[in-house]
Specification:
Length: about 475
């Protein structure tokens, strides 16, 4: 197509080989002259009737005087930007789908557009295929109110999300991210080290979405043999391969009306990635051995402990699939970066271990001190397993230093203190500072862990010149 070359010159790549479906009247709002012309030419070649405007104010005036089937707008424009345009149209024309173009990685703008009433957003650099597919979905699936930002029973901001324990600033940021992303239909990529709780995030996103009544279907791309993963995801017909004695519905269809959670997507075989990408773009799936495609309606949430940037550079993960799954990103911090949550998590796991027993397990100050000193390379999963092991070893309701697993007891005090040849006062000062930092300067909790009362702690803080260190 002529427009393919023009689009490519403006950083919008590819060609469209899909089905030409609904023809529509589309208003394109873009302040860059070349990009605006390229978009208009491409959408015209796709069979749509196009009008263009250079800013939100002019677009709003045109929309008040004419009928359009959809709006395609940039976010960042002088005067009235794309988010304000969405907000105005959401009140005046709630059934008009608005597609917003955002820069890759500009999640805040994308989420702002969705909250303002946008139907969906498309990340730059654009491809003709993504643009056409997104517009086709907007035209075929009805008003945005049935697709994006549907009513859901999200908890109020002050309540923790189920299973995501921790009051540190890092975990509060994760919870805020989940609450923003859950009501949308956007694909979410959850990143973080093993054991940080990525599946808990995925389940929270599902529970607090409009799809909560539908199924949550998890699968680990690392746990399923490569030769079987294709049939697991897409299904297969009877006799499609050796051992296929009967037809099987794939996980994409099993998640109909709900959520498919692809854990460890970074381990997906390279040869399978184009099929997944096409299925996500088209919302259609063809089982192995079949010539018939089926529609499916499932939201995708993916997770990985790998660096997908490195994988793309190495050629083991496709860039276009990365753009598709990394629409909204939630990063799970390792436990060592939120030490203030360690004791809260430990008590939570002990309380769970107490269910069904006559005991109510409590940590001794020595045990708490050691939990704060450990680096937790296995993250929350290691802490949970450690508390289970400690309960199994406990002969009473108290969990002390001796009941902790050997790996957790390995270093009695932080390494930097154990190897420090300085005076006792200097070592004490550093240790008090370490505990306060770990507990985010909760002085009451720090005094309890240190085994002293608050008055003694305040005297020591004054003595060591630490009383103003945390800014309060």
């Amino acid at each position: 197509m002529q427009s393919s070359m023009k689009m490519q010159s403006d950083g919008i790549h590819g060609s469209w080989g899909g089905r030409l479906g609904s023809k529509a009247t589309v208003l394109v709002v873009e302040d860059d002259d070349d990009t605006r012309a390229a978009l208009a030419d491409t959408l015209t070649d796709l069979g749509h009737s196009i009008e263009v405007r250079a800013d939100g104010v002019a677009a709003l005036e045109r929309l008040h005087s004419g009928n359009f089937d959809a709006v395609l707008t940039d976010v960042r424009m002088p005067g009235m930007d794309g988010i304000e345009l969405c907000r105005r149209l959401s009140g005046d024309r709630p059934s008009l789908p608005v597609l917003v173009m955002t820069a890759f990685g500009d999640v805040d703008s994308a989420m702002g557009a969705l909250r303002a009433g946008a139907y969906d957003f498309i990340t730059k650099p654009l491809t003709i295929e993504r643009l056409a597919s997104a517009l086709e979905r907007a035209l075929n699936q009805g008003p945005k109110s049935s697709i994006i930002v549907r009513p859901c029973a999200a908890p109020p901001p002050e309540e923790p999300l189920d299973g995501l324990v921790g009051s540190s600033s890092a975990m509060r940021a994760v919870s805020d991210r989940i609450r923003s992303a859950a009501p949308t239909e956007s694909t979410v990529l959850i990143t973080g080290e093993s054991g940080t709780g990525k599946e808990l995030v995925a389940r929270a996103l599902h529970r607090h979405s409009a799809r909560a009544a539908g199924p949550f279907v998890p699968v680990s791309c690392a746990a399923v043999p490569a030769e079987m993963l294709e049939a697991e995801l897409f299904g297969h017909t009877r006799g499609a391969f050796t051992g296929a004695g009967q037809a099987r519905t794939g996980l994409l269809q099993q998640a109909e009306g709900g959520t498919l959670f692809l854990d460890e997507i970074g381990d997906m075989p390279l040869e399978l990635q184009p099929r997944l990408l096409r299925a996500l773009q088209e919302r259609r799936v063809r089982p192995v051995g079949s010539s018939v495609e089926f529609d499916f309606d499932a939201r995708l949430i993916a997770a990985t402990n790998r660096d997908l940037g490195t994988a793309m550079a190495a050629g083991t993960f496709r860039e276009d699939l990365y753009f598709r799954v990394n629409v909204i990103r939630v990063e799970m911090p390792p436990l060592r970066e939120r030490p203030g949550d360690v004791l809260e998590l430990a008590r939570y796991f002990l309380a769970r271990a107490s269910v069904g027993t006559s005991e109510s397990y409590q940590l001794t100050p020595e045990a708490e001190h050691q939990l704060l000193s450990h680096s937790w390379p296995g993250n929350v999963r290691e802490l949970e397993n450690s508390m289970r092991a400690a309960v199994a070893m406990a002969t009473s309701g108290h969990v002390g230093f001796e009941e902790l697993p050997t790996g957790v007891r390995a270093n009695l005090v932080p390494r930097e203190i154990a190897n420090d040849p300085r005076t006792l006062d200097e070592v004490e000062r550093r240790h008090i500072l370490h505990v306060l930092d770990a507990l985010e300067w909760n002085k009451a909790e720090a005094a309890r862990v240190l085994g002293i009362n608050r008055a003694t702690l305040y005297r020591k803080l004054q003595r060591y010149g630490l009383e103003g260190n945390n800014g309060n």
